[in-house]
Request: fold
Amino acid sequence: MILNTILFLPLLGFLMLLFMHQRIARQFALWFSLGIFVSSLSLIWPVLANPGDMSFVTNTIWVAYPEIRFHIGLDGLSLWLVILTTLLTPLAILVSWKYIRDRVTLYYGYLLLLEFGLIGVFVSLDMFLFYVFWEVCLVPMYFLIGIWGHDRRIYAAVKFFLYTMAGSVLMLAAIIWLYLKTGTFDYFAILNQIRSGQVAISPLEQTLMFLAFFFSFAIKVPLFPLHTWLPDAHVEAPTAGSVMLASVMLKMGTYGLVRFCLPLFPEAARANANWIAGLAIVGIIYGALVAMVQPNMKKLVAYSSVSHLGFVVLGIFSFNQQGLDGAVYQMLNHGISTGALFMLVGYLYERQHSLEIKDYGGVATPAPILTTIFVITTLASIGLPTLNNFIGEYLVLQGAAQANFGWAVGAAVGVILSACYMLWMVQRTFYGETPDSVAHHVTDIGKREFIAIAPLLVLMVWMGMYSQSFLPAVSASNAKILEQTKVQATRSVPAEVANAR
Amino acid sequence: MPASFMPSAQEMMRFLPETLLTLAGVFLMVLEAIMAPENKGRLKAFALFALAAALAAAVIAYNDPGPAFNRLLIIDGFATFFRVLVIGVAILAVLGSSQYLAREGANPGEYWALVLFSVVGQSLMVTSNELIMIFIGLEISSIASYVLAGYLRDDARNSESALKYFLLGSFATGFLLYGVAWIYGLTGTTDLSQIRADLANRDISNSMMMIGAACALMFVGFAFKVSAAPFQVWAPDVYQGAPSPVAAFLSSGPKAAAFAMFLRVFVTAFEPVADRWEPIVWASALVTMIVGNFAALRQTNVKRLMAYSSIAHAGYVMVAVATHSKLGIEAAMFYLAAYALTNLGAFAVITCLVGKGERFVEIKDLAGLGARQPLSAAMLTIFLLSLIGVPLTGGFFGKFYIFKAALDARLIWLTVLGLLNSAVAAYYYLRILVVMYMEEPGDTVENTQEMGGALKFVLVGSAVATLVIGTFPSLLLDVASRYAVLGR
Reply:
């Protein structure tokens, strides 16, 4: 019941905002989303007690025929993603506080609608319900980019919508195909039928369905070479849009890979792991190299996302506990550190009205605290030990090395490159000569801005120093998912291979 | 069976909706002539009342389903569903027209009568169990539609639209009639059930050429009426030229009725040769979707864009026809109902916005609508999302049911290509959203009209209905699956 409430409260907030007066809209949105965050904290302990299984399960019929169930639940994998969503929504509202002046009610309404969709994606245990929430997320983000974005916002918004839509219709076809095979949309029912061998799915079918799901998720992640919508969307989106997009929306794709692609189609996933890991490594290095030459700060952070998400995909397709744990942990880390980076870039933009690195320099002189925070976030992002990204990247590298040592070598190059482009950007922006315009316009971080970013700083340190608070729940879920992919794999070893041994 | 030409009271009850509508239509024509001009507002109320009575009669008639008039008509679940649908569409169309007609200073008395006659024709189309009756229903509906398309006769665009519609429509009906004649010559009957029995029993391999040709001729007629490729070319010109509320009506009611008879003839009479016509419908469905969607990408006129969109949507329904299964029929019923609601709602916004003389019909004239008229813009957003097929709208579940039926019938390629098509379609609908919300209003739009009560009712009503069947699709699908019974 709590989970239901937390899922539907944002929708309620969206509807209420539609009929609300401009003046109280942002106050309402902030307190309302804070309320959702605080109540979502009560989800943590019951899930931690039993992270491998689903807690807070609601399972009722939504559409009678063909049977679509309203089946939601929370386990160690989805728990932190839900908390991340509920945490970042009020922060995103706080970040927009002064910047958004136009059509305020609609803006905050869309942020809450986005929260509704995102939570829905992470808790759905019915394939169809998952698809519905997946698409629901698209609409508010489309408007957030398209209405409140920068100059090329329309191009970016439409590109974003069409890319995701093209991927998701294939997923829909695969979901319907699964339904026709198994007679249900329920994730666990499908999984049981596949694992117990009740339904016969030929290798070709499995590969096709895997690819349909994978393609749709890979666009969202985004995996090289499907990433081209991301820099556009990020650069054009308002700060809060970028934060939500980078921190949570990209995780929809990687979450889908872990939750659905691996357990449902284990053979196909393993069979295709090589080229996928290859693309992930290409993405890591390519994203880093392109980030290095970006003159635009936001674009730089966007390409760093492509690089970081490559790590996540690599970890997932390593098919071992460390890799998977690292991938999921890295999903959270990336959400926090990149979310913080986008916020900080947004702060700079509100002062100087430019995203070009060349328009800055010596920001440390007028804004020392802002600079300190930026440097901490940068260090977190490049994986300095004691900060959060280090743990995730280390686990992914270890997992990748177990699977194939070459992968780890390739990915490690990305770690080095990330230090190059991030630190170089920091150097050019914050140190050196202070131009007059910077000295004039750039002030130090304000109280509201500090409150918005402080929780993320705390989390960077906490997740870096004491991963024990977060990792065990993730590991328990991952162990189960890994188990599901293994059982299947051993069962289906072809007879001649077994005999040859 | 000895022919008895006196219909029984039972049969008259089954035929009551058409009777009521015909009488009301004739009555309206007479009243129009003798009534004082200031009282003519009441004619609309009368037309609405007649439609409501016909709706009730259609529902009541289903209490006692069965054939009427020597099996010329048949009242089964399928017929009842579409009867209710076309009458409902007409009610919304009447509500959505009055403001427009008042603005254009047009004399509405005969307009209502024409709508009623068109509905009579559509209602006959969906209840006919016999090829000649189908032809008669089609003609009644079409002739009324031709006149409606050219209703503002001083407007050159209207006249062009009506003339094109009339010439091409008559030509297509000729094909249909020729097909009917061939079928009669081959089987000796025009009764759908008997054609089916005849085709199923005889060894058709000898006369396959002839049967195929007859089917093809009838297919031409039907494909024209539902604007399926390659017979879709008329639709953009006609919808663009016709008055906006008429375009809304034509692309909802008559189209649904035409699909109903298409389904009934091909799934009842021609079921025994289904494996022969399925590839033709398959190809037509694919081409219709592609032509509709890709042509819509380049349109700048809103009405023309909606016309191409309606072609594309006809393509999706053709996918359902290609399945020729009960699931496919249910899906088509759901889709046509959801599409009619969405389409009428979208046209209600367009009707209001085009302004007197339909001067603001370009997409760019919608610029800044989100700020100028938040309600219209929000409702149009819902309709466009439904046309795209975003979840929680009726259009999404319509597509879902159709493609599920198609996968069930193993039309895998058609499904994949159709779904990709719907992603393409998102682009041109999004363009309208972009203009509405993300662009500054131009200087052309200062004098758009306030929306009247009736139009607002159509708008909000269809938006709410679109969302409700998108959230609880069982409400409509249960009805569709219960009523997807074709009397044979």
